Each structure stands twice: as C-alpha cells, then as structure tokens.
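Human: I wish I could look at a protein chain and see how it folds. This is the protein in question:
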Amino acid sequence: MSTARTIHRIPWAVPVCALILVLAGIAAISRADDLSGSSVRAHRQAVWLLLAVPATIAAAAVPHRLLRGWSYPLFALSLVLLALVYLFPARNGAHRWIPLGLFDFQPSELAKLAYILALSHYLMFRRNYRRLTGLIVPFAITGVPVVLILREPDLGTSMLFFPVLFSMLFAAGARPRHLFAILLLGAVSLPALWMVMSAEQKSRITTLFLQEDGGGAPRGDGYHLYQSKQVLALGGPFGSDWQGPTVSDPLAYHLPAAATDFVFCMVGERWGLVGTLSILVVYLLLFACGLRIAQQTDEPFARLVAVGIVALLAAQVAINTGMTVGLAPITGLTLPLMSYGGSSLLMTCLQLGLLVNIGLRPGYEIPGEPFRFAGDE
C-alpha cells in the first residue's frame, strides 16, 4: 500500500478527537493544580502524552492480525499481573498498582484491552453462543478479571467488563432474548453481589440514593459528590475563564481527586456548561467513528475488537460523567484521555491506535463467514 493511499485511508476523526480530549484534559488538570497550589501533574501528563504518541503510531502500524495469536497469552499475563498486585502494600486501602521505580503500573488497564482481544479471538467463528449454554465460556472469561479487580477493590473498573461483553456478544450474533434473560438473572443476583461488596463500595452506592441538594456539605463519601456538583455549578454557562470566579471562598472549589476521577468537573468550572457539552460531543464523534470502522470491517476478529474498544470507552465515559452529577456511584473510574494518570492515558491511546489500525485494514485477512447470524432471531 502506497504512503499516499495509507494517509488517505486513515480515519482522521479518531486521532483528531483524541488530541482534542487530551489537550483539554491537560488544561483541566492544570486548573486542578492551580486550585490545589500544585504545578506538577499537568507537566507530568504532558510527558506521558509524548510517550503515548509513538505507542499509538506503533499500535496503528503493526497489522492487527498479528495480535490474534498473542491474544490468549496476553490475557493470561494480565491475569497474573492482577494477582501480583496483592503482593505489594496497599495504597489508600487498595491493591491496584505495581511499583516500577519511575512510575506505578496499573494492571487493570492492560487487562481491559487483553480481555477484548481474547474474547474477540474466542467469538470469531463460533456458533455455540447462539445457545444459552454457549454463553457460559464468554461469561467465565469475563468473570475471572472482574473478581480479581473487584477484590482490589475497584468497583468502577470491574463494572466496565459487562457492557463490553454484551456489546461484543450482540455484534457477534448472540440471540437478544438470551442476553435479556441473563440481564434478568443478573438483576436477581444483585443481593448476593451486595453481600460480597466491601463496606466502602456499599457506602458509595447508598450515598447515591441518599444525596440531597442544598444545606451544608455532608461528611464521608457524600462530601465528594456534594463538592463535585458544586464545582460544576460554579462554572455556570461559560466557566471561570470567561466570566471569572463565581465566589471568593477557596473552600468552595475544594474537590478531592480533581485531576483524576473528577477532571470533568474541572472542565465545567473552567469552561462552564458550554465546555462540558462540547467535550461530550467530541466523545460522541469519536465513538461514532469507531462504530463506523467496525461496520466497514469485514474481518471478524478486527470488527469485534473495534466494537469492544468503543463499548469500553463509552461505558467509562458514561460512568465517570454520571458520577460527577449524581447519576452513578462514585467509583474512582477515570475519564478516558482526560484524567491524570500515565497508565490510563497510555493504554487508551494504544486502544485508539488499534482502532486506527483496523480502519486502515478493513478487508479479510483470514477466510470465513463472520456474523452470519446478524439480525436472525
């Protein structure tokens, strides 16, 4: 393939939207640094961006068919790393990171991509997921990382696997009535899930249903949600960059984890409602381009990977932005491309690089008839 033809076939909406989101994220992190009296995190995120760019290019350049053979070993490695986190001291009561000297690596970030690759490999040409009993293996593949991550504890990341699973099963041709039956079964089993949750996880869920507007700031988990909504409200229609600070009390702007879990609030404070809506539009454009890539891809492994990546990022955006306004429990889930964190930024850029890779190579690379059951009830 010539260089000119390759450049022409690049789905430019993916890297352009990603760059907008990363730069907006660095600006939001910088605002969080200003409010906290720090000046470190925005610069560190910029350094991580410089490392993520060549990683993204590499992910787009290597033919995605090579990943198929490595999908199962990579998934197994990610499970081993998820187990290794328990060998290191807990940080803030959680075992989520493996210290590597200059930085800390979060294995759950790798596990999300490895899971998508392994499940895509498994679902490529199989018929058994057309039967209800044939869904046992996909759910078993999903259950292992979910249990390991839930015990870290990391409720937010563990919640991401099931939207990805259902999206990929639907794209592969699983019967909708079987998926609906499983959803009902999951709803019935919620009391059992509640019993195995940690006290902190239960507290964050109950806080969601006990939130009240007005009055003073509550204590505990309710404080994070209260401050999150307040900081968003302080941005008003256009944000402090245009209309200036709304109040002079610095405590009104205090928001724990403002650069990570609540970076979306910094967008709202800095650029107001216009800024938050604009960011959501960019995300929607990114997801629409990803789904178009999946639709135009004939090769089954690549199409499933594209669907999985879009479902993963869309679920993460929905949960993160939902928790900032009190529509979802506070889970510690980062906002893709925007939250502070090297592991999250690097792995998200690798996923988008792989999405570009699939867009460049939409044709068949192995024989077969994928998705023959699409639309068949």
Q: What stands out?
A: The chain has 15 helices and two strands.
